[in-house]
């Protein structure tokens, strides 16, 4: 026992030592020749495009590149994607790289890391160009936090003028794009200049690892801050040819809170000045060939929606019952049916698989918590799932029409979902086609026995004594 | 020969309603010896009867689905929202929680004991249907169950009507009654899909109880009497209209006693039904001990004791065998009983043990009572006396068939027909007093009219059939020596009779088809709009939907604090609690007149006075309905005079003449000064005619719906003193 513990300890220690060695080697090995960062603040989802030109100055080949984020940003980070660019300008091709969160022991001020695994090891003296895209949600802080109907919505954006990085950056520039030219104020870190909707920080030369220079941009952003606090999507497979989808939304306007009077006169007579940060339409992009669409809430059907379909896509424009001002909430349900053959396929090993899109069909919305429930038909076995990003999953059982043993439900949960997550995922399962007939046969036999019972009742005389009139008649 | 003619008679059924019986009779005459054929006809008759009943059953259900098809599957009107909310609670929390439910969301700050102040029959019925369906793995939503409960029970009512008709007349009349009641607008008005109200199941329970009681009286069977007691229990649990049963049945018994139709059958039926029904009814908390304590139920008790005395006297008469002695005994007993009864009633009333009649009961007996004494009852449109036009609207040809049916009933007087006559006459009187009681009269009117229709058509077809038979026999057989004399006899009256009968039959069919068309039209046009969603035709003929109520309620539900109190006129109380999920000050269960008057007072005072009242009631939001922009007529300003009247009934500060100009009610520029300045006016006509530029000091607009129908105001917190 003692020995085992000792062995473990030594193992842990050696790993720790190795890791620390690794990090130091990283910092020494790699430097960034040129970094360009473009921050897009036009909607309420902050998109950051980062182009890094990385050089291996060390001796050993490098397999990985680290990205560092301040802890405040990591909580709001929805997506981190990296691509390696190869080839010259016009023939540039991109290869998607693997990005994983990682922990490093000696991170200063609790900085968090993502590790990009390179496809080919970067040899000494070689350079590579990496394109990184990451998205932040809930990173625009409304200030003032409460506005009246006639005021525009102003928000803060916090970041650093200098890219946080564990490596030395030779040269770097940051561009921030605001939705309009109305910028109240911004922190100056020279050289800084502003041309209409674009702020430029830099170029800055030779910044040491973990340099940080906080900036605040205060600007006007009247885009709809549509946030779905909770979205439950239920996908029910019926082998009679239908895929039924039910989506429960809890929508909130996450912008500056509305205060004081809501005046319908103002709102209707001067739509360009009154309540400009509010929204009343939402657009849901649904798959083509969608049918029997409904849009309702707890108290009934909502009559204000339009559906446009063509052969490539369907667009459902929905209006909540009332325009959403800051802090106002609305809940609703959207349901629709889809032809099964568009989504259900048979794999080579005889299994069936459903290929369906993850994420929220509403355009330009953030989903704080997304739950997808895939209801497999009764009698299906061995469910398994393939999702391009990590999700929490577990199994449930649901009873629907005429179920005896219940249907297996695969539940997938993910937090902080943005439209970038609308990529397909697959659910594999085995199913015997004969089970399709189980429920109709059940109904048929139930009716059959009912009629048999009726016939039996009419033919059997249950009375204890025969009425005497019966004999008198004949 | 007979074998050949039989199938012709058996299969050719020109008129399904009455032909089975005719067929049966003619067959009896024709094929007395052929048992197999007779059985076959019987089977055919059964088949036709069952299929007609099935069709009527389906018809009754689908004719009530207009609103679901045209709008959506939703709950209508005001009261059904309360029923829906309680049903939801029942299905979620279970029966015991439901029974002990203290609802703090209504009647703030008083609250309401739901379990003890409602008739649970409807909710329990819907919940049982829901649980059964769930058990059978039908994944239905409770809302769908609630929406379709009324049509389902309407279908069941047609079956009961068939059996009732069969009991009082014959199966032909039963079939006609089923068909008539299936589409009668008077009943449809309260049982379309979505109208999830007590009446939906209560009419079924009412007719069911009556049918079982009549059956019990006809047979003298204890089993039927027991069944009718349980029917009565169901009725008591479903609707306050059970008072009608508990008064009509004693009245009927009295009439039977007076007309000398007393029998042991009646004794068994009434005593069993009354005693057991009373005990069962006491289990309903809302009814409690009313059967022994309330003046409205005393008639039944009196008749119960009278029955005992009657029985006793009968027995004594049997023992004595001496007319003179019996006369003396009779005199003493009657005087003694009447004396004891009167004293008991007097003492009971004086000591307060027996409560006097309630206002609603008085207003039934005296139509003008409510107007003078209880404005809250008079303010409800469905409590108004009925206009002739609405009788015509709801009954159509039944109004003319009703007296004809009464004639037939009197012609063939029996215990059962006496009952239906009494039911018809009393309920017609009540229908005249109050619009909503047309509903109670509908089954009786349908049954009696069915008797008229069935009897008439049967007579006519018998006439026709007799001719046919003679003609047929003549052609098939030639002129037989035995039949020639009888044929000659019949021939004399043939042309006139035959043509007259055909004309009358055609007339009857014309009338009945007119009735069917009228019913469909009324159902589709008048009774199938949910009133919570308003639909209008747009400029291009497209349908425009005003969904403002739900817009406002949903806004309340989502965007106000969960403990916010909403003040509105009482009409909207149930909807706000059910759809908005917020606490209300007053709602449609108008049990506390003072509380409503306080709200009425707040609505009709100056803003600063109203603010004091609202502060004292802890109101956060005020909801008003405003029809100014869309021209929606039933808004709060139209109800305003009632607010003034009800408010003035308790708080004499509010005087109706202050709001009138020259005795006229005006809301435009010529309105009275008090009117123009009161709170209600400010809020309902905020930007409208009469008084523009209203500045509200204590209230601020919180939300207005897209068509301006509902406006919600927030009560500002008091100014900070520092």
Automatic annotation (TrEMBL), chain A:
Complex formation: Component of the oligosaccharyltransferase (OST) complex.
Functional note: Subunit of the oligosaccharyl transferase (OST) complex that catalyzes the initial transfer of a defined glycan (Glc(3)Man(9)GlcNAc(2) in eukaryotes) from the lipid carrier dolichol-pyrophosphate to an asparagine residue within an Asn-X-Ser/Thr consensus motif in nascent polypeptide chains, the first step in protein N-glycosylation. N-glycosylation occurs cotranslationally and the complex associates with the Sec61 complex at the channel-forming translocon complex that mediates protein translocation across the endoplasmic reticulum (ER). All subunits are required for a maximal enzyme activity.
Residues passing through the membrane, by range: 441-460
Family statement: Belongs to the OST1 family.
Pathway the protein contributes to: Protein modification; protein glycosylation
Signal peptide range: 1-27
Keywords per UniProt: Endoplasmic reticulum, Membrane, Signal, Transmembrane, Transmembrane helix
UniProt-recorded name of the protein: Dolichyl-diphosphooligosaccharide--protein glycosyltransferase subunit 1
Subcellular location: Endoplasmic reticulum membrane
InterPro entries, per database record: Ribophorin_I
Record's bilayer topology term: Single-pass type I membrane protein
TrEMBL record, chain B:
Protein name, UniProt field: dolichyl-diphosphooligosaccharide--protein glycotransferase
Organism: Hevea brasiliensis
Cofactor(s), by name: Mn(2+); Mg(2+)
Catalytic activity entry: a di-trans,poly-cis-dolichyl diphosphooligosaccharide + L-asparaginyl-[protein] = N(4)-(oligosaccharide-(1->4)-N-acetyl-beta-D-glucosaminyl-(1->4)-N-acetyl-beta-D-glucosaminyl)-L-asparaginyl-[protein] + a di-trans,poly-cis-dolichyl diphosphate + H(+)
Family from the record: Belongs to the STT3 family.
Domain Oligosaccharyl transferase STT3 N-terminal stretches: 50-448
Keywords, alphabetical: Glycosyltransferase, Magnesium, Manganese, Membrane, Metal-binding, Transferase, Transmembrane, Transmembrane helix
Protein EC: 2.4.99.18
Region of interest (Disordered), ranges: 1-22
């Amino acid at each position: 026992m003692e020995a085992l513990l000792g062995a473990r300890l030594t193992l842990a220690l050696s790993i720790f030592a190795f890791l620390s060695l690794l990090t130091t080697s990283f910092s020494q090995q790699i430097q960034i020749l040129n970094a360009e960062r473009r921050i897009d603040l036009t909607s309420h989802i902050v998109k950051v495009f980062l182009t890094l030109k990385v050089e291996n100055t060390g001796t050993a080949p490098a397999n990985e590149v680290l990205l560092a984020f301040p802890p405040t940003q990591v909580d709001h980070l929805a997506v981190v994607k990296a691509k390696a660019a190869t080839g010259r300008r016009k023939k540039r091709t991109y290869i998607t790289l693997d990005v994983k969160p990682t922990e490093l022991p000696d991170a200063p001020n609790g900085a968090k890391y993502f590790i990009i695994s390179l496809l080919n090891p970067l040899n000494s003296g070689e350079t590579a160009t990496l394109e990184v895209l990451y998205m932040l949600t809930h990173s625009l802080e409304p200030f003032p936090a409460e506005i009246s109907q006639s005021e525009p919505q102003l928000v803060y954006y916090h970041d650093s003028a200098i890219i946080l990085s564990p490596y030395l950056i030779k040269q770097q520039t940051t561009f921030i794009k605001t939705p309009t030219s109305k910028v109240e104020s911004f922190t100056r870190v020279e050289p800084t200049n502003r041309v209409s909707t674009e702020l430029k920080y830099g170029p800055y030369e030779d910044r040491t690892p973990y340099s940080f220079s906080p900036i605040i941009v205060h600007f006007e952003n009247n885009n709809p801050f549509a946030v779905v606090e909770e979205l439950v999507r239920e996908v029910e497979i019926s082998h009679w040819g239908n895929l039924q989808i039910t989506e429960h939304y809890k929508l909130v306007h996450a912008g500056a809170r509305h205060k004081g009077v809501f005046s319908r006169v103002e709102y209707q007579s001067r739509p360009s000045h009154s309540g400009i940060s509010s929204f009343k339409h939402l657009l849901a992009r649904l798959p083509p060939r969608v049918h029997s669409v409904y849009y309702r809430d707890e108290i009934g059907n909502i009559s204000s929606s339009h559906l446009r379909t063509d052969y490539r896509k369907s667009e459902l424009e929905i209006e909540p019952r009332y325009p959403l001002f800051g802090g106002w909430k609305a809940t609703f349900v959207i349901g629709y049916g889809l032809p099964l053959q568009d989504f259900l396929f048979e794999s080579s090993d005889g299994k069936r698989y459903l290929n369906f899109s993850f994420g929220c069909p509403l355009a330009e919305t953030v989903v704080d918590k997304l739950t997808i429930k895939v209801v497999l038909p009764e009698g299906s076995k061995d469910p398994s799932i393939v999702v391009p990003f990590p999700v929490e999953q577990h199994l449930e059982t649901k009873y629907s029409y005429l179920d005896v043993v219940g249907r297996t439900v695969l539940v997938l949960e993910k937090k902080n979902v943005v439209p970038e997550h609308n990529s397909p995922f697959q659910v594999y399962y085995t199913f015997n086609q004969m089970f399709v007939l189980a429920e109709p046969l059940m109904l048929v036999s139930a009716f059959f026995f009912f009629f048999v019972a009726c016939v039996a009742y009419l033919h059997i005389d249950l009375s204890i004594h025969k009425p005497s009139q019966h004999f008198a008649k004949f | 020969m007979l074998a050949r003619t039989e199938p012709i008679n058996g299969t050719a059924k020109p008129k399904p309603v009455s032909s089975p019986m005719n067929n049966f009779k003619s067959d009896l005459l024709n094929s007395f010896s052929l048992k197999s054929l007779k059985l076959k006809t019987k089977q055919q008759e059964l088949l036709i009867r069952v299929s007609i009943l099935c069709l009527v059953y389906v018809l009754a259900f689908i004719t009530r689905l207009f609103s679901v098809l045209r709008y959506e599957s939703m709950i209508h009107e005001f009261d059904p929202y309360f029923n829906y909310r309680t049903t939801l609670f029942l299905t979620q929390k279970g029966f015991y929680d439901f029974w002990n439910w203290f609802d703090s969301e209504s009647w703030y700050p008083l609250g309401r004991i739901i379990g003890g102040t409602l008739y649970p029959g409807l909710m329990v019925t819907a919940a049982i249907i829901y649980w059964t369906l769930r058990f059978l793995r039908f994944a239905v939503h409770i809302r769908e169950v609630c929406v379709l409960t009324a049509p389902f029970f309407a279908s069941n009512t047609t079956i009961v009507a068939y059996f009732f008709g069969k009991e009082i007349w014959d199966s032909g009349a039963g079939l006609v009654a089923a068909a008539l009641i299936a589409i009668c607008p008077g009943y449809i008005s309260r049982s379309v899909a979505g109208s999830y109200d007590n009446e939906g199941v209560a009419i079924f329970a009412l007719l069911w109880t009556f049918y079982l009681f009549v059956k019990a009286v006809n047979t003298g069977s204890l089993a039927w009497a027991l069944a009718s007691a349980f029917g009565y229990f169901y009725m008591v649990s479903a609707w306050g209209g059970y008072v009608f049963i508990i008064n009509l049945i004693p009245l009927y018994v009295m009439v039977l006693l007076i007309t000398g139709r007393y029998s042991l059958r009646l004794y068994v039926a009434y005593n069993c039904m009354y005693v057991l029904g009373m005990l069962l009814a006491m289990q309903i908390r809302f009814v409690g001990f009313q059967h022994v304590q309330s003046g409205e139920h005393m008639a039944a008790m009196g008749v119960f004791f009278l029955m005992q005395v009657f029985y006793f006297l009968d027995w004594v008469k049997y023992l004595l065998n001496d007319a003179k002695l019996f006369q003396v005994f009779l005199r003493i007993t009657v005087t003694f009983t009447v004396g004891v009864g009167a004293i008991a009633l007097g003492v009971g009333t004086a000591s307060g043990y027996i409560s006097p009649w309630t206002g609603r009961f008085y207003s039934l007996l005296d139509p003008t009572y409510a107007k003078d004494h209880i404005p809250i009852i008079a303010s409800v449109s469905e409590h108004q006396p009925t206009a002739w036009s609405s009788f015509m609207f709801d009954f159509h040809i039944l109004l003319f068939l009703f007296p004809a049916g009464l004639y037939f009933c009197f012609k063939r007087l029996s215990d059962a027909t006496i009952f239906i006559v009494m039911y018809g006459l009393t309920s017609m009187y009540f229908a005249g007093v109050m619009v909503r009681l047309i509903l109670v009269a509908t089954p009786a009117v349908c049954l009696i009219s069915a008797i008229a229709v069935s009897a008439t058509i049967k007579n006519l077809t018998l006439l026709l059939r007799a001719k046919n038979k003679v003609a047929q026999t003549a052609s098939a057989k030639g002129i037989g020596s035995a039949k020639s004399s009888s044929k000659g006899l019949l021939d004399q009256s043939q042309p006139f009779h035959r043509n007259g009968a055909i004309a009358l039959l055609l007339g009857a069919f014309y009338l009945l088809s007119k009735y069917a068309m009228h019913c469909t039209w009324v159902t589709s046009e008048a009774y199938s709009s949910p009133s919570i969603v308003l639909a209008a035709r747009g400029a291009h003929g497209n349908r425009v939907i005003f969904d403002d109520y739900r817009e406002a309620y949903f806004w309340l539900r989502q965007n106000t604090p969960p403990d916010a109190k909403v003040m509105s006129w009482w009409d909207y109380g149930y909807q706000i609690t059910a759809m908005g999920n917020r606490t209300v000050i007053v709602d449609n269960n108008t049990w506390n007149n003072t509380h409503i008057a306080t709200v009425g007072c707040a609505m009709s005072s100056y803003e600063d006075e109203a603010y004091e009242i609202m502060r004292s009631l802890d109101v956060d939001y005020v909801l008003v309905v405003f029809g100014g922009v869309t021209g929606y007529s039933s808004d709060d300003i139209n109800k305003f005079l009632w607010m003034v009247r009800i408010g003035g009934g308790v708080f004499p500060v509010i005087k109706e003449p202050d709001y009138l100009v020259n005795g006229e009610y005006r809301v435009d520029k010529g309105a009275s000064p008090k009117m123009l300045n009161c709170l209600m006016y400010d809020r309902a006509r905020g930007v409208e005619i009469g008084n523009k530029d209203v500045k509200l000091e204590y209230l601020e607009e919180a939300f207005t719906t897209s068509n301006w129908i509902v406006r919600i105001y927030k009560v500002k917190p008091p100014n900070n003193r520092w």
